[in-house]
Each structure stands twice: as C-alpha cells, then as structure tokens.
Design goal:
By secondary structure, the chain is an alpha+beta fold. Helix content is 43%, strand content 20%.
Length: 204
C-alpha cells in the first residue's frame, strides 16, 4: 500500500513539474513582428533560424479588422504583409533577428521589394515593447552610420497593433511549394544568402 501511495505521489509531482516547466518555457518566448515584402519570403527565412519556435504570416498596420488577402493587395486597408515571430531570446536575440531581417530584404526601397510593388510590401518593424523599439532604432542608426546600404533606410518603426493571421494557404508556403517559379526565383536566393551569411544561426 505504501509503495502504491508513494508511486501516485511521485506521478502527481512529475505531472505538476512538467506543467511548471511548460509554463516557464511559454513565459520565455517573445514575439517580434516584421514586414519585409512578401510574407512567403520572410516566413521561409525566419523558420530556419535556431531559437525561432513559430512563424505566423499575417497582416498588420492597417485600418480594418480581419482583412482578407484580396483586400490587403488593393492597398486600401493600409496593412502590410508581415510575420509574427515567436522566439526564445536565450537562443536568439531580438537584435539578431533584426540583423537577419536587414540582410535578407532591401530596406531602402519604399513600398517595394524587387518586382513586388505596393504599400503592403513595405519594410516595417512593429515593436512590442520599448526595448524592441530602442534596439530597432539603434541598429538602423548603426547601419546608416556604417553606410551598409547605398541608399537611405526607409524601414518604418511603429508600435505593434492588431495582427491578423493570413489565410491557411499562405502558411508554410515555401516549404510546400518550393518548386514554383516565384519560390525558385525570389525566395530560394534569399535562403542561399541566409545560408552563406548566417550559417551558424541556422537549424540543423
């Protein structure tokens, strides 16, 4: 009887410990919201980084609730295509995310990334805390001072507002459609640059 009692007690302790560890892990996870053109591209880049546990494609920075993709592309809603990045700051910092962000899109072209044109393709950082705001502004200032880019950085830095998840077919797009021409000609080169520049930060 005593053995059964202690076995049940041990099981209850382990169960509570697992719940506590899970809760602690959830509390560690932070969120960053970035817009760097088509979210198919941005999603594919950040999915590959160590410390990133989830990437959600969606829309933010606009004026209406729950916009559909077809509405966003008219440029009348004011939304940007963006990704919500859930990351563990003990593995990858917010600044490191931004370093990857600036290295894998063009922050100097207003409302355009390559052939993709429109306000929904704008370069933007939507900070979720004043700490993120300071990091973003400091990094932009450093990049400008170092003249990393030939032209001025036009990336918007704005406080995060409502984020609306995009339709299901947009999620995990590159991984499921890598043979499509857009993926081959636009996204694959970004991933090649990511592999070359940030090899030590990539998932194995």
């Amino acid at each position: 009887m005593k053995i059964q009692f202690f076995a049940k007690l041990l099981d209850a302790f382990i169960f509570k410990l697992v719940l506590l560890l899970k809760k602690m892990q959830e509390e560690i996870i932070e969120i960053g919201i970035l817009a760097g053109g088509c979210f198919w591209c941005t999603e594919a880049v950040f999915q590959r980084l160590q410390g990133v546990v989830r990437v959600v494609s969606g829309f933010t920075g606009g004026t209406i609730k729950n916009p559909a993709y077809r509405e966003v592309t008219t440029e009348r809603t004011g939304h940007a295509e963006a990704v919500q990045i859930h990351f563990d700051p003990n593995i990858i910092t917010y600044r490191e995310l931004l370093e990857v962000f600036f290295a894998t899109h063009d922050p100097t072209t207003l409302n355009r990334q390559g052939a993709d044109r429109g306000t929904h393709y704008r370069s933007a950082i939507f900070y979720t805390s004043t700490v993120q705001q300071d990091i973003a502004k400091d990094l932009i200032a450093e990049l400008e001072k170092a003249r990393i880019f030939a032209d001025a950085i036009v990336t918007q830095v704005s406080e995060a507002g409502p984020f609306y998840k995009a339709e299901d077919y947009h999620h995990n797009y590159y991984n499921q459609n890598s043979e499509e021409s857009y993926c081959q000609f636009v996204i694959s080169p970004k991933l090649a640059k990511l592999q070359q520049t940030f090899k030590n930060k990539l998932k194995h």
